[in-house]
SDR family oxidoreductase (Arthrobacter gallicola), 250 residues
Amino acid sequence: MSSNNSRTAVITGAGSGIGRATARAFLAAGWQVALAGRREEALVETADGDPRALVIPADVTRPDDVERLFSAAAEAFGRVDVLFNNAGSFGPAGAVDEITLADWNNTIAVNLTGTMLCAAAAVRQMKRQDPQGGRIINNGSISAIAPRPLAVAYTATKHAVTGLTKAIDLDGRGYGISCAQIDIGNAATGLLDGITSGGALQPDGSRRVEPTFPVEDAARTVLFMAELPAAANPGSVVLTAAGMPFLGRG
C-alpha cells in the first residue's frame, strides 16, 4: 500500500459526518488516507473498498490507541503529511451549574485531550520523517468564536482548541510543521437533525430552524487547506451556512 510519492493523511472521526465526507474527498483527490474512529464497521463503510484507505479503529482519548494509529499509518504509507483532527463530541446540554463533572471531563477528554494526543503523535512523526514537516488541521467549531446557549462544555473545549492550534503552529515553525483550524457552522450531518427539524435554541429562548449547507463543501474546504503549498498556512478558516444566526447570537 505504501507509496512515498503519494500524499498521506490521517483523519480522525472518519466513520461519519464531516470526517467521512473529508476522507472520501481526500481519497478522490488521490491521497492515501488512514481512517480512524471507534467503530470499525463505520470506517469500512467510509473506505468503500478504496485500496488507498487504511482502516484503523482507535479511540483518540486512549494514548496507546493514538500511538498505534500513527505507527500503522507511517508503516503503511511511509510518512504522514496531514492530520485532520476531526473527532469530537457535543457533550452535555446545560449551563455551567447544570452539567455533571463526569460529562464535563468526558467532553474535555474527546474534544481537547484527544486533539492534543493526536497532534502530539503527528508532530513526532513529522519531525522524524524525511523530508521533515507536515500540516495539522484542527476541526474547531464556530462555537470556538461564539457559543450556543446551554453548551458550556463544548464551547470551553473548542475555545481551548483555538489556543492549542496557535501553540502547535508556533512550536512547529522550526520543523516545517504548520497548524490551522477550520470553524464550521451547520454543515448538514446527522448530528444537526434538531436544527433542521425541531429548531435550534436561540439566545432569547426561542427555537429556530436554521439553514445548513452540504457536508461535501466542508470536506472540499479541508482538502483545499491541506493542498496549499507548505509556504502558505491558512491559519483560521470560518465556514458557515449562509444566513445562519452566527454573528448575531448575542
